[in-house]
Specification:
The structure is a single chain. With 422 residues, the chain is an alpha+beta fold. It has 2 domains: 23-117, SH3 type barrels (Roll); 126-419, Fumarylacetoacetate hydrolase, domain 2 (Alpha-Beta Complex), CATH 3.90.850.10. The protein is 18% helix and 27% strand. The strands form 7 sheets. Strands 6, 7, 8, 13, 14, 16, 17 and 22 form an 8-stranded mixed β-sheet that branches. A 5-stranded antiparallel β-sheet has the order 4-3-2-1-5. Strands 9-26-25-20-21 form a 5-stranded mixed β-sheet. The longest helix has 15 residues, at 76-90. Bound molecules: manganese (II) ion. Manganese (II) ion binds at residues 128, 201, 203, 235, 355-356.
Length: 422
């Protein structure tokens, strides 16, 4: 692959090389601006559009908006033109567009480390799937120990539930321990109080572009026109509340209290070099769920944990799980086709999360309930702490990246620290 160099420095190992160019939203003064991450900086799209450098691509107002929804609605041709323009403005070779470099850089760039990020789109609808065969099997064993771990519909339907978009929060937002009903195993009646089984779910979500009309569907062959990009998702879960409430209608208050996303939407275009074939599906899915393109993506994933005591003693966060998105049984095109097959609508900025991404080995599980097998096998941490589930003061960071040699496209992180119940 030919090397493209940006005139904004990109440190070795940075998630935000010129091959990435992910979209986010950040505070600038009293306003919220859209931006693109490059190295340790953010290119301010509001400033770029105001300088007229994007006027030939689409109406300037699209980039002056505080959220990406108007841009998401415009579709792939505009996304591609914008990506090419940004790359041209940042690159140094013969394909460079030198106009930005000649202007005062102070106006156009801010440092990521001093910037407050925000959820970059108004999320109308949020769906969470259950697409990992390993996770679904593990949870089946834990929640229904006397039954078949995988329910009979799982290999035929991308199972999911409608989540709560109003509690989607950005990386770094504190997570207050939720309260609710749980039924201790030795008791016949439920008790009320803060959850004692606060957990994470390591996931990746896709953000949609143009929607569909009510009554129409999005076939798998057209999914690429409707999917803009991906973020890391932590679907925080209260397992004791969940276990008591989930039958017969599925997840409810055990999930709806908070969902953290990473600040940068990494586009499908940036991820294309890492596309790969997904696992073989057996039985072969129904016609409307068949895909022929390579929809799996080789994204390495990690979960880091730092307890309050580790932080106070200067002990670095410990990686407690490593896995990969490419093993997911159901892919994004199948999920979008399934969601819309009954004629419901998607809109620009909707979020569809993958479900917990668990590998086949115990060090690759994407949740504490699997990593500790519902608390039976606590995780030992440096400094002497051990964890069955999350305790107050714990910080969890999800990370994700694609990498071949020095060619790297990363997601940054989705972090949250647990606060005591109110
Ligand atoms: Mn989930």
């Amino acid at each position: 692959m030919p090397q493209i160099v940006s005139w904004i420095p990109v440190p070795r190992g940075s998630d935000f090389s010129i091959y990435n160019l992910p979209y986010g939203a950040f505070r600038r003064g009293n306003a919220q601006h859209l931006g693109i991450a490059i190295g340790e900086k953010i290119l301010d799209l509001h400033a770029l559009a105001s300088a007229g450098l994007l006027d030939d691509i689409c109406d300037r107002s699209v980039f002056l908006a505080p959220v990406l929804n108007p841009f998401l609605a415009l579709g792939r041709d505009v996304w591609k033109k914008t990506r090419l323009r940004i790359a041209a403005l940042l690159r140094t070779d013969d394909a460079a567009d030198g106009r930005l470099r000649e202007l005062d850089a102070e106006r156009f760039f801010v440092e990521q480390r001093v910037t407050q990020m925000a959820v970059p789109m108004k999320v109308g609808d949020y769906v969470d799937f259950y697409a990992s065969l390993e996770h679904a099997t593990n949870l089946g064993k834990l929640f229904r120990p006397n039954g078949d771990p995988l329910l009979p519909n799982w290999r035929h339907i991308p199972i999911g539930y409608h989540g709560r978009s109003s509690t989607i929060v950005i990386d770094g937002t504190p997570i207050v321990r939720p309260k609710g009903q749980r039924k201790p195993p030795q008791s016949d009646v439920p008790v009320f109080g803060p959850t004692t089984k606060l957990d994470i779910e390591l996931e990746i979500g896709f953000v949609t572009g143009p929607g569909n009309a009510l009554g129409e569907s999005i076939p798998t062959s057209k999914a690429r026109d409707h999917i803009f990009g991906l973020v890391l998702v932590n679907d925080w879960s209260a397992r004791d509340i969940q276990a008591w409430e989930y039958q017969p209608l599925g997840p409810f208050l055990g999930k709806s209290f908070a969902t953290t996303i990473s600040p940068w939407i990494v586009t499908l275009d940036a991820l294309e070099p890492f596309a790969t074939a997904g696992p073989r599906q057996d039985p072969y899915p129904l016609e409307y769920l068949r895909t022929h393109d390579r929809w799996a993506i080789d994204i390495a994933l990690a979960v880091d944990l730092q307890t309050r005591r580790m932080r106070e003693r200067g002990i670095a966060p410990q990686t407690i799980s490593r896995t990969n998105y490419k093993e997911m049984y159901w892919n994004m095109a199948q999920q979008l086709a399934h969601v819309t097959i009954n004629g419901t609508k998607t809109r620009p900025g909707d979020l569809y999360a993958s479900g917990t991404i668990s590998g086949s080995t115990p060090d690759s599980y994407g949740s504490f309930i699997e990593l500790t097998w519902n608390g039976e096998r606590p995780i030992a941490l440096p400094g002497g702490d051990e964890r069955r589930f999350l305790e107050d003061g714990d910080t969890v960071a999800l990370r994700g990246w694609c990498e071949v040699g020095e060619f790297r496209v990363g997601f940054g992180h989705a972090t949250g620290t647990i606060q005591p119940a109110n």
